Amino acid sequence: MKKWNDSPKIQELLSRMTLQEKIGQLNQRNICAYDEHVEEIKQEVREGKIGSLLFSGSAIPENGGMEAFDLDFTRELQEAAMESRLKIPLLLGRDVIHGFETIFPIPLMMAASFDDRLIEECYSALAAEAGNAGVRWAFAPMLDLSRDPRWGRVIEGPGEDPLLGSRYAASAVRGFQGGSPAQEGRLLACAKHFIGYGASEGGRDYHHTEISDYALQNQYLPAFRAAVRAGVGSVMASFNELSGQPVTGSRRLLTEVLREQLGFDGFVVSDWGGVEQLEAQGVAENGADCARLALQAGVDMDMADQCFARHLEAEVMAGRVSMEEIDRAVERVLQAKLRAGLFRQPVRETVNIDRVKHRALARRIAGESMVLLKNDRNLLPLSKKGRVVLTGCMAQNRDSLMGAWTPDGSADSVITIEEGIRAVAPELELFTESCTLLSDMTAVMEQADTVILALGESARASGEFHCLADISLPEDQAALALRARRLGKKVVGLLCFGRPIALGDTISLFDAVLYAGHAGCEAGMAAAELLFGDRNPSGHLSMTLPRSVGQLPLYYNAAPSGRPVNGYYTECRNYIDESGSPLYPFGYGLSYTSFQVEKARLEKETLSLAELSAGEKAVLHVWVSNTGERDGDTVLQLYLRDPAASMARPLRELKAYERRTLSAGETAEFVFRLGLEELGYYLPDGLLTLEKGEIQLFAGFDAWAEECAKLRIV
Ligand code: NOJ
C-alpha cells in the first residue's frame, strides 16, 4: 500500500498551520442545504475551523431525502474553503449505504448473492452517482458482523459470517475507491463501525457489547482486515462500549489492533457524537477528558459534536495533549484529502451516468440475492397464462422496498411487485387487492387457485435505533396466509422484510416462499422474473433464519459444547419448548434445478506446517452436477472443522465459496485453495496460528454441507 505521510505537500502545510487551523482539520460538522446555519458554517470554513462536512439526516428513516444537496451547493462550500488562509479543501461525506439515485438491495441481501464481482459493480455505480453530487467520501461499507436480527442495523451489513463479510468488504472498497479514490467517479470509502457494534446485547441498538479477544480476532475483525488489505481510506469508530471500554476511547482497539495489528494507515473518524458520548459512557468526567481520550486513543476526526474544536486547544496549552498527537491526526486527515484528489480538484467534473446500466445492475443483484426457501411440489415457477391473486401489504408498496438508509432515492423509481408481475407476465389474469380487512379477503382470494402474498415490513422497522423485540411474522400477515390456506389455495409467500424473521410454524401455511428482502428499485421486476421463471433463484441466506425469537442469537459457526458431542446447530441443544436448529441454515437457498456434490479430492491429503508456512496450499477439487432440467447458478460452499486445536474452534467455518452457472446436466469442477490463513485461526493476541492434526472439509450448498475430505497437517 502506498504511504502518503512523507508527502512534502503535507509537511509544508503542517509547518504553516496554527494550532487552531490544525484542530479545524479534525472537526467535522453536519450541514443541511436548508439549514439556517449554512452561512455561519461557511464563515467557519473560511476561518479554517472546519475540515470536513457531513450531509446527514439519513440515520432517521423519516428524514430520508430531507436534506437534499447538489453539486452547486458542494461547490459553494469548497469555494468557502478556497477562501481560507491555507486553501485546504473540505472532505464532504455522506451515508451512501446501498443506494444513491439507483437503489440497490439492502447490503444484507446483496451479500446473499455471494457474487463478489457484481457487488463491486454496484458500489462503483453508487460511487459515480454520489460523486456527481459532490460527495467525496462515503460512510460505507458497514461491516458489522451481526447474529441477532432484532438489531435494526443488520440490514446494513453482510450478515453473520466472517468470510462472506470479508469478501463483501473487499468488493465494496474496490467498488467505491477503484484504483484510487481520486479517479473520476470514485470516492473514499469508510469501513464501519470499528468494532463489535453488531454484538449489541439483545439486538438493542447502542447497547453494551461483550466480546472475547478470541471472538474479536476470528469473528469480528476479519471483514476489517479485508477492508484494510483492499486499501480502505478511512475507518469509523463504533459507538459501543466493548467489554468495559467504549471503542471511541480505546487506544488498544483503535491503535494497537486497528493500526498495529491490521496495518491500517488511513484516518479514523468517530461516529456521530461518539467523542462527547464518552462522558455518558462512564469513562470521562467532562468534555475535555472526552476529547483528549478519543484523540489519544486514535480518533483523528470528530464527527458532529465539536468536542475536539471546543477542548483540544486548552488541552494542548495545559500540556495534557502534545503537539505531536495533534500533528499525527492532522497529517492523516490531510493525507486522506490528498489521496482523494481534493487538492488537485476540490470540485470535480461530473461523469456520465449510464442510468439504464445502473438499473440493470440493480435488477440483476436483486434477482441474484432473493432466496427461495421452499417450493413444495414445484409450485414455482408459476405459469404466465394462469389466474393469480396478488395481495398483502407489499403488493403495491414502493418506499419500503427501498429499505432503510436511502436518503437520496425516490420511491417513485421503485417498481412495485404488482407492476413487476404485470410487466413480466402480461397475459396473466391478475387480481390484486391491497390488504384490507380479513373479512374482505375471502372474495378476493376466491378469484384464483394461486395466491401470492406479498408480505413484509416497513423500511422504518429497521435501520439505526429501529430494533424489534418481536421478529415473527406479524399476526395480521400470518392470518392472511391462514385464510388463503383454509380456502384451499396454493399459497406463495413473497417476503419483503428488511431482516431475517422468525417464521416458526407459519412456514407450513405456504407452499412456496421466496425471501425477497428490501430489494431496491427493481424489486418488483426481480421478484416477478423469479416467480414466473424468467430467472432461476440463486440467492443464499447471509444470516441464519431462526424458528423463533427465543432462539436468538442463533448462528452456524458456534463453538462446540461437548454435551452432547457434535451437537451442531441441531436438535441436540434444544430448549424444552423449542428446537436448537434454525428453520433454514446460513448459506441456504433453493433453485428450480438441483445440484449435487459428486465427489471431492484433495491433491495432497497431508501437508506439513513448513510447507504451508512457505506458502503452499491445500488444493481441493470438487465436482458438482446440475442434476435437474434447467440451467442455474449454484453457490458451492466449503466449510471446515478443526476438531482438536489449542483453542476450541467453531463447529463449522466457511472458508471458500464460488458462484457459477451450470447448464442442465452439466458436471463442473471447482477448485478451492486453502493456505495458512484459511486453515488457521487467530489467537486472542492476534497471532495467526495453525497446529498439527486433522482438518475436516465439508462441501455443499449451505452450512449443513456434508464432509467430503480430510486433510492431515503434520
Ligand atoms: C451514525 C451512524 O451510526 C453512522 O453509521 C453514520 O455514518 C453516521 N451517523 C452519519 O450519518
| Class by alpha and beta content | alpha/beta
Q: In which order are the strands of the major sheet placed?
A: 11-16-15-14-12-13
With helices defined by DSSP (H or I, 4 residues minimum), what is the helix count?
A: 22
Span between termini: 34 Å
Strand content: 15-25%
Mean pLDDT: 94
Helix content: 25-40%
Bound molecules: 1-deoxynojirimycin
Shape: globular
The biggest beta sheet reads: 6 strands, mixed
Q: Detail the poorly predicted runs.
A: 58-66
What does this structure look like?
This protein has 714 residues and is α/β, with parallel strands linked by helices. It is built from 22 helices and 26 strands. Strands 11-16-15-14-12-13 form a six-stranded mixed β-sheet, sandwiched between helices. Strands 4-3-2-1-10 form a five-stranded parallel β-sheet. Strand 7 and strand 8 form a beta hairpin. Helix 3 packs parallel to helix 4 (71-82) and helix 15 (355-369) packs across helix 20 (523-531). It is globular, with a radius of gyration of 26 Å. Mean pLDDT is 94; it is low at 58-66. It binds 1-deoxynojirimycin (NOJ). 1-deoxynojirimycin (NOJ) is lined by residues 56, 58-59, 95, 139, 192, 271-272, 464. 1-deoxynojirimycin binds at residues 56, 58-59, 95, 139, 192, 271-272, 464.
Keywords:
714 residues, alpha/beta, six-stranded mixed β-sheet, five-stranded parallel β-sheet, 19% strand, binds 1-deoxynojirimycin
Describe the protein's topology.
Layout: H1 8-16, H2 19-25, E1 27-31, H3 38-46, E2 52-55, H4 71-82, E3 91-94, H5 107-111, H6 116-132, E4 137-138, H7 162-177, E5 190-194, H8 213-220, H9 222-229, E6 234-237, E7 241-242, E8 245-246, H10 251-261, E9 267-269, H11 277-280, H12 287-297, E10 302-303, H13 307-317, H14 323-339, H15 355-369, E11 371-375, E12 387-391, H16 399-402, H17 417-424, E13 429-433, H18 438-445, E14 450-456, H19 475-486, E15 490-496, E16 512-515, H20 523-531, E17 595-602, E18 606-607, H21 609-613, E19 618-626, E20 632-641, E21 653-662, E22 667-674, H22 676-679, E23 681-682, E24 688-689, E25 693-700, E26 706-713
Parallel strand pairs: 1-2, 1-10, 2-3, 3-4, 5-6, 6-9, 12-13, 12-14, 14-15, 15-16, 18-26
Antiparallel strand pairs: 7-8, 11-16, 17-19, 19-22, 20-21, 20-25, 23-24, 25-26
Helix pairs in contact: 2-13, 2-14, 3-4, 6-7, 6-15, 7-9, 10-12, 12-13, 15-20, 17-20, 18-19
The chain binds 1-deoxynojirimycin.
Residues 56, 58-59, 95, 139, 192, 271-272, 464 line the site of 1-deoxynojirimycin (NOJ).
